[in-house]
Design brief:
The protein has 545 residues and is an alpha+beta fold. It contains 9 helices and 28 strands.
Length: 545
């Protein structure tokens, strides 16, 4: 039966005996608006009969299959509503009330996506402000053990933490001591997006702190990166997640041998949504892959591509290249001399291009958070409290990439070439083909690779040294190569630290957009030869192993 409670904390059963909607459908939900077509599906006790779904004066029918599942693709709905949706069949009639049509965004990742509004900056104001956005609706998946096989619905008990809820101080801020309610990045992204678009937004939060990208990837996605091996026999593995003390039980799976942490959350927390029509996904993850970052330039793009393929293949209504946004990792430790892990992950988040979208990551967008550290945050410096700037940067890029709004500056300054003057001992980096207006805030962050040969690895004959900015022009940064005692310079990099700078005080920003320049890494044998050179941005630039 439906409930009048809009907080979503109580289980809602929209059913009549065994005639019911899928578990993640409910009152107050948002379905994807036109031009896409939303899908409504559920269960019926009798097979090979038709179920009709009525919205307004329009009714579509779907046949109940041999598994007792029915599915109906609605006609495109542009008007936001609210609507009542009724399904009727031989077993009776069931309904959803107060349903809106808008854009549905899935929010996923690890702890910085899990990080709640109550944990972040200006929490009290943000929570109270949620009352002003009743056209935003939220839904949260519970964190429970992963699954060895893909699940089609959240039918296992306690699979859903927060049923569809109208945005309010209760649904966003909550009072549950064990869980601070809704994701800050997810909520703020939806809120700022609504402010720009003016129609309903549905936010689906499915995340788990401390998880690696492999947990959110299907076996097929991982196989493309060599992380699953084909086998004639299946394996059974049981292990315990040391952070959550949750048992993950992996059972038989054809063609793949299961490894701990692989695909469990894809199966349990993403796969059930494949029958839902969505607009796109935002993602905040990577910290757990930083200790071993080398495969991330494959696993992350592969996961994105695989999600798109599987969401589209489910019922054909999802865009086969739906928009996918992510957050480039923020800072972590106050020691600004450390460089292991995080810089590589940031570079690999772009598939080694340094920017998105690119040829390997089409229709993607990002928010660079490396200049938003919060070293004194009460839940750890790896969790910066300023999720507002993260969300604003995400929305800015989303409007340009996902919504095709014109005249939006969303790309950070990007190196496109360089000039070498061996006599003056300078290396001039050209940004955005000379069109970028740059702002230099300080002189820290650029390094050059010195070598006694043509070696760019971290061996005895090759090493990185910090260099200073000799001067800056409108679109170029002129670096001194004098700190390099060797005859050969083989590389240049920028912001290659776990924590590159203090709050909004990295060296280089766009003067027009105030966006920070992203980390940059490039090696070449021409850095010691006079002349002007082009950096080919159409190909990835791999890191030395």
């Amino acid at each position: 039966m439906a409930t009048d409670d809009t907080s979503g904390t109580q289980e809602v059963q929209h059913s009549n005996s065994n005639f019911k909607f899928a578990a993640y459908y409910g009152d107050h939900m948002v379905l994807q608006r036109a031009p896409k077509q939303a899908v409504v599906w559920g269960y019926h006790p009798f097979t090979y009969v038709y179920v009709g779904v009525t919205i307004g004066n329009n009714t579509q029918y779907g046949l109940v299959n041999t598994h007792g599942v029915w599915s109906v693709i609605l006609d495109p709905v542009e008007d936001p509503g609210p609507y009542n949706i009724t399904a009727h069949g031989l077993a009776g009639e069931i309904s959803l009330t107060d349903v809106l049509f808008g854009d549905v965004w899935v929010c996923s990742g690890q702890s910085n996506m899990e990080f709640t509004v109550r944990m972040g900056n200006n929490a009290t104001e943000e929570i109270q402000d949620a009352n002003n956005y009743p056209s935003i609706r939220v839904f949260t998946v519970n964190q429970r053990a992963g699954s060895s096989t893909p699940l089609s619905d959240f039918t296992i008990k306690n699979s859903i933490k927060q049923y569809w809820s109208v945005a309010s101080n209760t649904s966003i801020g909550g009072s549950d001591k064990d869980w601070g309610y809704f994701s800050a990045v997810c909520w703020l992204y939806g809120k700022y997006l609504y402010q720009k678009l003016g129609y309903p937004i549905g936010l689906v939060n499915t995340c788990w702190g401390g998880t690696a990208v492999e947990a959110w990837s299907s076996p097929e996605a991982l196989l493309k990166c060599g992380l699953f091996r084909s086998t004639k026999e299946t394996e059974k593995t049981r292990f315990t997640d040391p952070d959550r003390s949750s048992d993950y039980r992996y059972s038989d799976k054809l063609n793949f041998s299961w490894l701990p942490n692989y695909s469990g959350l894809w199966n349990a927390m993403v796969h059930p949504f494949l029958n839902m029509t969505i607009y796109g996904v935002i993602w905040y993850q990577g910290e757990s892959n930083a200790p071993s970052p080398h495969d991330y330039n494959c696993t992350f793009p592969s996961m994105i591509s695989d999600w798109r393929v599987k969401f589209h293949a489910s019922h054909g209504q999802n865009d086969p290249a739906f928009p996918f946004g992510f957050v480039m990792l923020g800072a972590n430790e106050p020691d600004m001399t450390k460089f292991d892990g995080f810089p590589e992950i940031r570079w690999h988040q772009t598939a080694d291009f340094g920017y998105v979208p690119n040829s390997k990551m089409a229709n993607t967008f990002m928010a660079n958070a490396m200049d938003l550290p919060d070293f004194l945050n009460r839940v750890g410096s790896i969790h910066p409290g300023d999720k507002q700037d993260v969300a604003r940067r995400l929305v800015n890029a989303s409007l340009a990439v996902a919504y095709h709004h014109k005249d939006i500056v969303y790309q950070a300054p990007l190196p496109t070439g360089y000039k070498v003057d061996t006599e003056a001992r300078t290396l001039e980096i050209v940004y955005n083909n000379g069109s970028e207006a740059l702002q230099l805030k300080n002189n820290v962050g650029f390094e050059i690779c010195c070598s006694y040969g043509n070696i760019t690895d971290y061996y005895d004959q090759s090493w990185w040294v910090q260099t200073s900015v000799d001067r800056i022009t409108r679109s170029t940064v002129v670096l001194s190569t004098a700190p390099c005692p060797a005859q050969t310079i083989t590389g240049v990099r920028y912001a290659w630290r776990i924590s590159p700078c203090s709050f909004k005080d990295c060296a280089l920003y766009s003067l027009l957009s105030s966006l920070p320049a992203s980390p940059f890494f490039f090696t070449s044998r021409t850095f010691s030869r006079d002349g002007s050179y082009v950096i080919d941005g159409s190909v990835p630039h791999s890191l030395p192993v």
